[in-house]
Amino acid sequence: QVHVVESGGGLVQPGGSLRLSCAASGSIFSIWTMGWYREAPGKQRELVATITNGGSTNYEDSVKGRFTISRDNAKNTVYLQMNSLKPEDTAAYYCNAYLVALGDTVPYDYWGQGTQVTVSS
User: Fold this and answer.
1) What radius of gyration do the chain's Cα atoms show?
2) What tens digit of pLDDT does each residue of 18-31 get?
3) Are 85 and 12 in contact (CB under 8 A)?
């Protein structure tokens, strides 16, 4: 079994900062890519940022320069530092781990349960 657990969401004023964390645990052989996605009410889930096991990153255009994704491979953990938050960043944020579990030969997507980020004054 593989578990993906996020933490760090909450309520913050516009212009503020939050740091999300996500840890993957369980029967993991190797993790390829980890990332963050978000889903606002009435909208489809969208990519926010991803990071490969080699450290290559990819960001959605609206968060470039404000959000930073990082990863601790030893801890199977990914972080999302969010600065200069805007009301339009309000959403449920989901962690994704694209990994090979023990007993598998190919990677699959594993998702966390989501953490709410609300940006409001």
Assistant:
1) 14
2) 999 999 999 999 99
3) yes
